[in-house]
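**User:** Everyone, produce a chain:

**Assistant:**
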Amino acid sequence: MLILAKAVLALMIGFILSAIFGLVIIPQLKKIKVKQNISVFLKREHGGKQGIPTIGGLIFIIPTIITVMFLVYTNKIEFSLNLGIVLITFVLYGILGFIDDYISIRKGNNIGLSELQKLIGQILIAVIFYFLFIKAGNPTDLTITLFNFNIHFGYTYPLFVLLVLVATTNAVNLTDGLDGLSG
């Protein structure tokens, strides 16, 4: 099967599973009162989100793992060490988000982990990713084949990994729950 077709198949299955999983889990989260509390500083912009179930990352994480397992089981994709590393990183970031949401729910406000605690957690996960990635024998080059462009990072590769993982994780995370919407 062509790589693009495999990617589209994975996206379609993941989207459909996420939509179905969302229809099932959101009422359950409402039932057990797992709700979003909005910061007083953002009431005007995001006040409508007050009471909406939180821990929405489950809607994306669980179906993604199920999709990957299904595609590997049906031999549509091949399980590789790199896929395992990406899944481990994905799950670790999900666990960090779950801990943040869980603390918010327990406190009854929108203050879970502090920004410093989140940043330290994100950096630790990025470091774990880097060591697993290098241990798997992957190159420290950035190659964009479309433009015949190659950068050899060498010893600066950990900084590049750290920048990419932490920056993309925080792109909307610090904006009071919009990370789930972007997911």
Observations:
- The first strand starts at residue 141 and ends at 144.
- The chain has a mean pLDDT of 79.
- The two ends are 27 Å apart (CA to CA).
